[in-house]
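Amino Acid Chain and Its Fold in Token Form
===========================================
Structure side: the spatial fold of the chain, written down as a series of whole-number tokens.
Position: the record begins directly beneath this header, with no further notes in between.
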Amino acid sequence: MPGQDHRHEGSDPLPDRGPLRENSRFRWSGPAVGEGLGIDNGAHVWTFTEVKGGVLVRTEENWAGAQVEADVPTATQYLGWGLEAWLKDLKATTESPC
């Protein structure tokens, strides 16, 4: 897919990268330890596509680790909460006045 590809290591998925172009992708990976869940390795790919009335954000997520694999339903719930929080922050940031 043509576009702009960014790779990042660490927990901040969208460091200041400037304006996005059509089909821009951000990839980041690494371990994460949060309240109640430890992730030995997480991989994330977010693709941004301009659509009528806004921008569509698609995510691809993969978490691995003993705790994640021992309790998949709980890990999936944490992933959902994390995605909701990241998308809420992304929306607030992009819609705020410069």
User: Anything to note?
Assistant: The chain has two helices and four strands.
